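Students often ask what a 'structure token' actually looks like in practice. Rather than answer in the abstract, let us consider Lipopolysaccharide biosynthesis protein, a protein of 540 residues. Its sequence is given first.
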Amino acid sequence: MNDDIRGQQDEPELLRDQVQQVLRHRVLVAGGLLAGLLAGGWFGYGSVASYESSSEVLVRAATINPYATNGVSVDKQINIGSERQTAAGNAVAERAAEQLGRSADDAGDLQGRLQVTNPPDTLVLKFTYVAGTPKAAADGAAAFAEAYLDYRETQTTSTVSNMIAGYKKQLDPLAEQREDLLDQIDQLQSDTEKGTALAAQANLLSQITELTNDISELKALDTTPGYVTVKAERPVKAEGLGMPMLIALGGVVGLALGLLGAWLRMIFDPAARSADTVSRALRAPVLGSLPRVPEEPLLAADGALAEQYRSVAFRLAYDRHFADRRRLLVVEPNGEGTTAAVVAVNLTACFAETGMSALLVEADLRHPDLARRLPAMPGARPGWVGREPADGTPWPGARHIAVDAGESGTFDLVPGVRVPHVARTLTSAATTRLIDQADAPNTTVVVLAPPVLSYADALALVDRVDGVVVVCDPRTVARTALERIRELIDGAGGQVLGAVLHQGGRQRKGRRRAQGPAPIPTAPLTAESVTRDSLSSGSR
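Now compare that with the structural description of the same chain:
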């Protein structure tokens, strides 16, 4: 139950941490935003402005009395779907091209700019025309509407004329037959024959009357095809999103792509990047984050940097695990270990400032140089005077240097020396006795070791020191490296007390070594050699 509640409380923190990590990739986010703005501006500048104008036509059928309520309904006489197809056809486009002063070959281009729609439940056709200028758009819409009405009236008039001509062809023979029949009636004497002829005459007269009425009705038809209900007007603004909207849309899309790229970069980036990631990988708190300075001194003076070291020292002093033994091992993941040396020196000075007897042990026996870089004072406190090792190893020896830490006071340094067998020296009884001096009241021993992933020297000292502080740059160290360090330290019997973070550029290029004899070849320190030498030192 408590784990579920804790997991729910950690979810906002994890989300906040991920958002912060994404926003750390400012170059990708800013690059995506800039690319989107440029793309939007390019599309807005390169796209041709288009204007749209519309004209509406009410379609009507040819009729004698448009106000008559009896008979077939007008909407039943008109198939509006067929009329829409006719309005968008080639014949209307050719007439529109003629009205616009264009050739018949341009009818296809004009037809491609036209869209004919029919609002639901109406007999209205809407002609929408798109052109590069407001005038051309309005002229095109008006031309197509007039061309459709003209074409439809021409077709209706032609149909009526053909029908009248057909009726007249039927009427002329009937009129000739009637004239011949009248002549015959005048010559007949018999009443029976005359009655038959008169009946035939009445039949012919009826047919002639019917055809004459049909012709009269066709001539009386109102062939008006329709009316323009909405005239085309010049549009005020161009269609489309416009330059400002395109730039804004490009910026939004570019920002989204930039954030996506930053998120993918965060997912596939092996570096820790943030303090929370370092804390989760080491399963230990971040004790402090050192501010970035142009040139970092080995001993920090008053200021933000010195206060940060004091804060780290006080957090360690109140740590229960450290307070029990007061032994501290300072290491870096990899590299030359220059920042770890700076942190170890300043933490020792802070412990001395609190009134403790502080001893700094330089266990970096491969590249020792603290004795050259720290300001030494003559003599040493009697409590730190050691004995020469009985086994004849040159380190740690009896050489202690008193270091002047300014206002923080003084602390003692056991400088490192080059030795032929690093593994045997670090696991010797003399090294154990030196570190065990932290058992004295009000005493602290800080041990500086080489990078833990470069050499196994730090692992040889973990079981003697227990508490480890990892100094790293979260932007360059991998999460897997930090997890590996925690596993190695836990396996060696130690515990990671916390991490001290610093920013890139703190290590000096081409670290200068102290002038002295050439390096003595040393055998590589492996896990087997550490175990073997630990057993041998214990037997002694």
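One point worth highlighting: The first strand starts at residue 51 and ends at 59. Ask yourself how you might have guessed this from the sequence alone, and why that guess would often be unreliable.
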